[in-house]
Amino acid sequence: MKIITMCGSLRFESEIRYWSERLELEGNCVLSIIYPTADDKDAYTPEQHELLDIMHKKRIDISDAVFIVNKNGYIGSSTKDEIEYAKSIGKEILFLEN
Asked: Is residue 19 over pLDDT 90?
């Protein structure tokens, strides 16, 4: 069993949920993304954004790998930062698409 943190744009929520479930059913422990409950992710304060970023990095810290949901090859700036962080601490990087 691997611990895998999901990474990707919030615009791919349905794909992230799908792959989270699929990876869990394959016997992995999946740590997913926190989705805003407000209609607008900008409803978060700067401090809340920072806290969510810190917590996502903690998920990566305790994971064996990260799974990048890069539908149609799209990787946003936050996801790029997460990939670089994961690489810097020696985590396996898995991609939905090459």
From this structure: yes
